[in-house]
Amino acid sequence: MAYKPLDSISITDIINLGIPELTATQLHLKLTEIIKIYGPATPQTWTHISTRILDPGLPFLFHQMMFYGCYLDFGPDPPAWLPDLEDAKSTNIGNLLERQGKKFLGPSYKDPISSYHAFQEFSVSNLEVFWKTILDEMNVSFSVPPNRILVDDPSEESQLLHPGGQWLPGAYVNPAKNCLNLNGKRKSSDIAVIWRDEGDDESPVNKMTFEKLRSEVWLVAYALEKLGLEKGSAIAIDMPMDVKSVVIYLAIVLAGYVVVSIADSFAASEISTRLALSKAKAIFTQDLIIRGDRSIPLYSRVVDAGSPLAIVIPTKGSGFSMNLRDGDISWLDFLEQAKSYKNVEFVAVERSVESFSNILFSSGTTGEPKAIPWTYATPFKAGADGWCHMDIRKGDVVAWPTNLGWMMGPWLVYASLLNGASIALYNGSPLTTGFAKFVQDAKVTMLGVIPSIVRAWRTKNCTAGYDWSTIRCFGSTGEASNVDEYLWLMGRARYKPIIEYCGGTEIGGGFITGSLLQPQCLSAFSTPSLGSSLFILGTDGIPIPPNVPGIGELALNPLMFGASSTLLNANHYDVYFKGMPSWNGKVLRRHGDVFERTIRGYYRAHGRADDTMNLGGIKVSSVEIERVCNAVDDRILETAAIGLTPPGGGPENLVIAVVFKDANASTPELNSLKQSLNRALQKNLNPLFKVSDVVPLASLPRTATN
């Protein structure tokens, strides 16, 4: 569509978008007033248009007319949102800088917006000061305080053993206890969790206070001890993310055990792999997953995976639709063992900060997932990112459709509860009007998304008619986003900012993000996260100079609070450091994404540098997909799985290139083959995976080394 400059748009142009004449006349009058004051093509013009003219009820074509008309000659990276100084001062970081900015930055400190970039650089060059400050601001409580914040021994031996340094040495802490502590951030009557079940969309939202959450977590922790497992034992959770799974998660950590995170969408073989890698001694699951009119078996998959002892939660009522395996126990029988401890405080098991709190999994390039332990420090990285970048604080309501099997599930727990906010959980599909209504009724203030969800919302128009005005900001992670889809998303909440956020399971949070103290550009990152620095490697493998535009594989400063230092099934140093260049005497940490720094200083993600792809926010190796596809039809010789970015940007589509054994023989009908591939992938890997296209080839292109 060709767009006009704002001062060339007529009332007729607006009417032609389907807007009634009277409304079009009023809109044009407001537009003319704004142009008189701010000009036809400035960021301030767009800010006033987006906040004074546009609303969710107007056709999105009109929103596009305004945005693209304003920035017609602006060039790359037009800002979709500008920070307001008074609002910036009231954010967590803005408030901190107003109190201590001159202490950190000296007389050069001006205000939170002007001095944010300098503070980000300060946070990297003064890691101990920065992290002590943030942990203090978050009221983190240690039973034994650390000797210091960071030890970074420059000796060659130490750099091989601890290239990321040693964080909080000597400390003993329990992150779940910190989520439940009553302090300046929370009192017992504050709301900890808000939820609603799909199908109950006309009912009031359910609420659980911190007093009730504490009581329920304590009871489960006592019941866990009745199982007789050794402290530090791994206990899996494979169930939807609802109020019970949050209680179970916190109880496992509070009692000194290790959570094993398994997504509820996984097939039995994938569950089995994760149970074996983690050496889990027990697993929490439920009988079924209810989605609309469908009942999806879950317990049976756990049984097929050969799981250890299962504690099984009934989806509805107290009975099951199937018999439990010998040795497995129901949720009610599990709790019955600890009934005498009801409302008795459980004394948290404080463990060394190097101890494991959670084992999560990320796709490996060999087909076996990487088993990544989070230590007792990692939850505070998640909480700090929420505090620093999403500005999560007491009184906020945080919703992010996810699962405890992915890092954003534990992240949501810690980023919310450590900062005194409420977790908002919808027990159903986030792609429905029911979810949109829940966001309205729960009065969500920070809504996290992945781009695939936003695309579905826009396609189905399922947010129409719902009031999302309580949202202060959005968060987005998991995959690359699309500019038009995210312009549409901002418009649902009267142009609140979207904080793009990228990190990794092995980091416990983000290394690059947006900020409420900087102008935000659509589908782009504005800054390395506080305490992190990143490098873009040139074609020669050497980092290009900081602040210089360029594109290449991303590398990270290894000194990252909360980041992994070991893997359960691979050599951590070989995976993340071997063969990487050095910068100022430190071997950089490998990440695997390709990033671009633009001429205006923003960053954009360009997919993976290895053979890992991102499907609907789930990272998966092409090797895993190809292994399944190769076995679908006897006529297939080999396949290649390709993640293809759509022309307009956004989530990757899965394309399968197929080579048949006999090029002259009859080949399967491609639509039928695509359906067979989808069935196999959804059964053996993940029901969310979907092949968009099948391409037959005579042979796969290969390098000289095959």
TrEMBL record:
In which pathway does this enzyme or protein participate? Answer: Phytoalexin biosynthesis; 3,4',5-trihydroxystilbene biosynthesis; 3,4',5-trihydroxystilbene from trans-4-coumarate: step 1/2
Q: Which UniProt keywords apply?
A: Membrane, Phenylpropanoid metabolism, Transmembrane, Transmembrane helix
For this protein, the record's Gene3D superfamilies field holds:
3.30.300.30, N-terminal domain of ligase-like
Q: Give the residue spans that cross the bilayer.
A: 246-268
AMP-dependent synthetase/ligase domain residues are 186-554
Q: Spell out the InterPro entries in the cross-references.
A: AMP-bd_C_sf (IPR045851), AMP-binding_CS (IPR020845), AMP-dep_synth/lig_dom (IPR000873), ANL_N_sf (IPR042099)
Keyword Cytoplasm present in the record's keywords: the answer is no
GO biological process terms held by the UniProt record: phenylpropanoid metabolic process
Where does the source fall among the domains of life?
Eukaryota
What the entry lists under SUPFAM superfamilies is as follows: Acetyl-CoA synthetase-like
Q: Which PANTHER family match?
A: ACYL-ACTIVATING ENZYME 17, PEROXISOMAL-RELATED
UniProt name for this protein: AMP-dependent synthetase/ligase domain-containing protein
